[in-house]
Amino acid sequence: MLRLVATLLIAGACALATPVGVPGLSGSRSTAPGGGLSGTEQWASGGFTIAWEITGSGSDWHYKYTMVIPEKGLSHWILQLTPDCVDPGDAACVTGAKFNGSSVVTELNTFSGADPSNTGMPAPIIGVKFDSGSTGTLVYEFDSNRAPVWGSFFAIDGKNKGSDVYAFSNGLDNLDSVDVLDFIARPNGDGGGGGTGEIPEPGTVSLLGLGAALILFGRRFHRG
After folding, report:
1. What are the structural domain ranges in the chain?
2. 0.85 exceeded by pTM
3. What is the pLDDT at residue 162?
4. Residues facing 49 on adjacent strands
């Protein structure tokens, strides 16, 4: 029985590990029910959406994110990156950043909800911060030497009658989630062309580890 359960878990993990095809990678998330994002005030219930289009291969990737925000203009948003983009630092992680077609300044750092400007952020993010924003359709683009993987983001505006207005991917509030809808595509992978261009599903490693542990336990159980 234990062997059967372990086999099923490993099979399920292999299914989760099926990569999302790239280049030409695209997708979207929203704060609508089941949309993968959480939001407050005007950005709740479908009031905030983010879509992405990623093209490229090797060490040459182009990332494009489009947000639609009907109300409460965006103050800034933060996209998760691989830690070594920030420390010790890799200038090629994010280059040529643009907002609605114009160059925009970015900041690579570690951000957390302890900073009043990021109130509501459920967990720290090592990533890149884009300050420019407004309402309507917002398009952010940049180039990167990093292949895409699943990750998180956080976006915030000012207050609405004393309450902060923000949105984030559900995976930021549940780091152990195995639901791909809780994440968005973002740069990670290996620098310098080492990335595979594949996006593994979250939770795969933990499921494989659990399956292996059950097999080992089953062997010991049968040996008495």
Report:
1. 1-18+201-224, 22-199
2. no
3. 74
4. 30, 68
